[in-house]
Amino acid sequence: MNAPVFDFGRAALPADAPPHYSFATISVTCTRALLDGLEVGVEFELQGLPAGSARQMRNQIGVDPDFLSYAMYVDAARTRYWGDGTQGSFTITGALHLDDRNRVGTLAFPIYGTVPSGHGMVQPGQWRGAVIARVQYIAQCLGA
To answer: What confidence tens digit (pLDDT) does each residue in 76-125 have?
Structure first.
């Protein structure tokens, strides 16, 4: 799995600012053994934790750190929270078929992020948060 740093970039966020948007791409790569005639089907689910809209970034500057909420979505319309399937969140699913012609397969998925408006005045700085990207998969031998 390749999960790059999700970067919202630089933006001024006064109380009346519109939401700030960004996106990144997460990819999942599967490789099968170099065994002639082997066919493998791989089904996977890509989860983002914590689930739903409970994500926050923290500014490390100052005695009392500030927090900014943000959300990550699996759709460009930003209506389906990326999560683990709980709390109204959605996972990303995919499937790869690996055989003698395709021993390596990669699927890429965009993740859309939003820092909503209405935070009020916050200090400039480096805001950091953490999301765990977890892949659960089932590989099934289709032939040998």
So the answer is: 999 999 999 998 899 999 999 999 999 999 999 999 999 988 777 777 77
Please indicate, yes or no, if residue 103 is contained in any of the structural domains.
yes
Q: What is the CATH number of the domain that holds 115?
A: 2.60.40
CA separation (Å) from 23 to 7, 110, 141?
A: 8, 7, 35
- Contacting residues for 20 by C-beta, under 8 A, at least 6 apart: 8, 9, 11, 13, 114, 115
Query: Is residue 10 in a domain?
Result: no
Residue 40 lies in a domain: yes
Rounded-to-integer distance, Cα 10 and Cα 22, Å = 11
* Residue 75 phi, psi (nearest 5): -130, 150
Number of domains in the chain: 1
d(CA 21, CA 9) in angstroms, rounded, equals 9
pTM, to two decimals:
0.86
Please state, as a whole number, how many other Cβ atoms lie within 10 Å of the Cβ of residue 83.
25
